[in-house]
Prior knowledge:
The chain is an alpha+beta fold. It has eleven helices and 14 strands. An eight-stranded mixed sheet has the order 8-10-5-11-9-12-13-14, sandwiched between helices. Helix 1 (17-32) packs parallel to helix 4 (118-135). The longest helix is centred in the middle third of the chain and has 18 residues, at 118-135. The N and C termini lie far apart (72 Å).
Amino acid sequence: MTRKNSPxxxxxxxxxxxxxxxxxxxxxxxxxxxxxxxxxxxxGGFGGFFDPKAAGYKDPLLVAAxxxxxxxxxxxxxxxxxxxVGIDLVAMCVNDLIVQGAEPLFFLDYFATGKLENGVAxxxxxxxxxxxxxxxxxxxxxxxxxxxxxxxxxxxxxxGFCVGAVERGQQLTGDAVAPGDxxxxxxxxxxxxxxxxxVRRLAEDKGWKLDRPSLFDQDRLLIDALIEPTRIYVASLxxxxxxxxxxxxxxxxxxxxxxxxxxxxxxxxxxAIDADLWDxxxxxxxxxxxxxxxxxxxxxxxxxxVGMVLAVAQENVAAITERLEAAGETxxxxxxxxxGTRGCTVRGSxxxxxxxxxxxxxxxx
Length: 365
């Protein structure tokens, strides 16, 4: 019915200011629980303050990163798994900061939806707060956008923004990486937050029953294995970085080992990865078998069980490995740095794949 003279309200258009205010009130304690030295603001202002000097820095370089969770959110939405995607959001940002040698200081989130459902939003923000606590950074603000007509029923999207700091001269640029360095891999917690468009395509085409035990782990539902949050490596790596024990770090995200390792290499250095040095996780083997995915495609799409790679001096490998394992990491040598064209080669029983100026896949036999 056409309304000629009746007064319109924002609520008539599908946006509830009261609901948004209620959400801020609900999540304020979650943000407060992430407080750390240097963070001086509470939610509700126009911006958040952070004092690097109060955080202990004398001459800091600021490092910024932003990211999202990608189509992993569709799995969360479709299967009511909203509690951990916030951890993914934080992880994708802070893991990108730590590879620069930067300590994550503060985080802001952007939550966009068609119609705000405070129960869902609060669960998502609780995950963001948990991720911030794991990374040691403060959740100092964010934006909740209710936009009718932009999203389907129940859909939402997330973006994260994080700022970190590193003392001038201590940043990791990859310049210290040199032939002879050993490459150490830290185990991933699962698929992390890359490759989910392919995962979802397989789930649809193969008719997976995500609410049933997985074929590779009868004690766990398949959806729970797929939704496992991205591991945050900050706490275990930061002490080693500050002691100058790490020459370079690569966060293994989209592009896998092949594309991400070259990003930290200087000219004349080539990363040689031996894929037979670690066991491929059962989840990864399941994805490969279900999709008949070529090994080269696996190496470019998924982390294949390695979420972070360190380049370190040979003489420090044993000490670094011991400390990382004590910090809760699963550690394995995955390769070495050799002289050669800047790039990466992954070799294993299934073939050889290289990334230099362009991609190529070369199979044995």
